[in-house]
Amino acid sequence: MKRPKLKKASKRLSCAKRYKIQRKVREHHRKLRKEAKKRGFRKSKKDPGVPNSAPFKEEILREAEQRRLKVCIVKMALSGFLWQVWKGSSEELDI
Q1: H-helix segments, the chain
Q2: Who's near 50: CB < 8 A, 6+ residues apart?
Q3: CB hemisphere CA count around 85 (13 angstroms)
Q4: Of 71, 69, 93, nearest in space to 81 by CA
């Protein structure tokens, strides 16, 4: 059976090797910054809303609210369905 090493490896490096590693790290970070600058910072566009000058503003807002409610109802129904499936009571569901 091989005997374990009692001494740890030394962390000494020649200066040339240490500086080479530092230079490589510096170049890598510079490259990452340059690529990030090329991609640029994109702000998400905000919804400007409905202007007051729109002729059917109330109707548009009502439709948007109905759409939002419909999505909410679908999400709640889906989560309820998934909850019942997870609980194992699929015989109660109309599948």
Answers
A1: 15-39, 57-87
A2: 57, 60, 61
A3: 8
A4: 93
Contact 84, 93 (CB under 8 A): yes
Q: Are 33 and 22 in contact (CB under 8 A)?
A: no
Are 84 and 92 within 8 A, CB to CB? yes
Amino acid residing at 59: E
- Neighbouring C-alpha atoms within 13 Å toward the C-beta of 66: 6
Structure tokens at 41: 């910072």
What is the residue whose two structure tokens read 């009692």? Answer: 6
User: pLDDT per position in the chain (95 positions), as tens?
Assistant: 788 888 898 999 999 999 999 999 999 999 999 999 998 877 778 777 888 888 888 998 899 999 998 988 888 888 877 777 767 755 555 54
Distances in Å between the Cα of 10 and the Cα atoms of 1, 7, 14, 16, 17 are 25, 9, 12, 17, 15
